[in-house]
Each structure stands twice: as C-alpha cells, then as structure tokens.
Amino acid sequence: MTDVILQTKNLTKEFKGFTAVSDVNLSVERGHIHALIGPNGAGKTTCFNLLTKFLVPTSGHILFNGKDITAAKPAQIARMGIIRSFQISAVFPHLTVLQNVRIGLQRELGTSFNFWQSERSLSRLDDRAMQLLAEVDLTEFADTITVDMPYGRKRALEIATTLAMQPELMLLDEPTQGMGHEDVHRVTELIKKVSAGRTILMVEHNMNVVSGICDKISVLQRGAMLAEGTYAEVSRNPQVMEAYMGTTSADLEGAH
After folding, report:
1. E runs forming strands in the chain
2. What is the predicted pLDDT for the residue at 107?
3. C or N terminus of the chain, fewer CB within 10 Å?
4. pLDDT band at 256 (very low <50, low <70, confident <90, very high)
5. pLDDT the model gives residue 243
6. What is the CATH number of the domain that holds 61?
7. pLDDT: which is higher, 86 or 50
8. Is 86 within a domain?
9. Strand 59-64 relative to strand 67-68, pairing
10. Same domain, 178 and 248
C-alpha cells in the first residue's frame, strides 16, 4: 500500500468554455520527487494554482493526507504544510539573504504579520536561519543584499525561505527556468539534497533535471493526463514523444 500525501480526483478547471485542466487524477507519494511536465499550455501552472487554491476548481476534489481540502483557502493550505515557491524569484531584493530567511521563519514565532519586529526578537531565529542557509550552500552569502546575488543563488535562497515554512509538501514552479548550465546543475543537486524526508512536486521543463532526480513523472497535454510513470517509462511512450512535437525518442533519451 503506497503512502499518498496528495491526491486529486477528476480535477477540472474551465475558463469561459475553455478547459485548462480536465479530469486530472494525480497521486503524489510521500517522500517522492514528483514532476509535472508537458508542452506549453498543457495546464501545469493552472494545476499548481488549483492545488494552492489561487484558483477554485470547476469540479473535482483535492485530498491532502486523506483530508478533502478542495474548499480550503490559500492561507489554510500553507498552514497545513503545502508551501509553494514561485516561478519568479520571490524574495525581498533589498534585504540580506539572512533577513529573507528570517522572515520565512517568523511564522513559527506567530509574528509573521508583524514584519517590522525588533532585531532582538528576530535574532533568536538566526541560528535556524544559518542552518537553512548551510542546507542550500548559501552560508557565505548571509550578509549579501539579495539584489546583488547571481540568479541561480537567488533561486537557492527561495528554496531556503520555502524550507523555513516547514513544508510537508513543497511545490516548486520551474525551479531551473532561465538558468545557465552550471546553475541548473547546482539547483538540481540542491533539490535532491533538500528532498530528504520531504515530498516535492515540481513543474519543470528541463528533461535533464527531471530524468536525474524524479521518482515519478506525470505528463499533461491540453489539460489532461497523458501518461505517468518513471522517466524511463514516460520517455518511451509514443504519445509523449508526439506531444513534444517532433520529439523523437532519441531527443528525450538524449536529455539524460
């Protein structure tokens, strides 16, 4: 019996006659890195927006740890432990790296809405913040103003601030988008490292990333589930190759 942390049942979202997500049955196992892939316009981001309640489904259900959360609000979802990092680097550019992580940690103090806490009350979070920075290899950047950091390091910081919220399920939205080869490699290794003892669901375009670290892959096309399985299974699926327009088996295999 597999331990499923997140499940969708016939999840559907329609916008004025256009079906963006159609009858999606997704099952994410605890402890896995699970990828949601598909061509542009496949409905991946809409799916993420439904899971985090930025959008309300037209029909269907979302279950988290067996509990129906379809009607829950975004803040409730976050408190339950479903935390999403955004596609665009979502950090405070004019604070230091350490200060950014401390803001994520404030939730534990119950002061997350009192942004301007005194330095003293926040400094007790420093040890934990430094632990998180060490986890994402950013210790040396602790005092750097975030805006001055390289792009790939900003994404690492975003993962640290996501971790600060103590996610049971981390949703990563295109974590390597817009990165050079070196940064992609670093962030991929980082995701693998922080996945220990956690569950990660990610939307990702880069097949190298997906093939290297994902336990299971769900392929969406035109809002519907096209295929699901390991990278090896999915990359050999003729429908998947066709969905990637002209992609041959060699292209998908060559992404390894």
Report:
1. 4-15, 18-24, 27-29, 33-37, 59-64, 67-68, 82-85, 169-173, 199-203, 216-221, 224-229
2. 64
3. N
4. very low
5. 78
6. 3.40.50.300
7. 50
8. no
9. antiparallel
10. yes
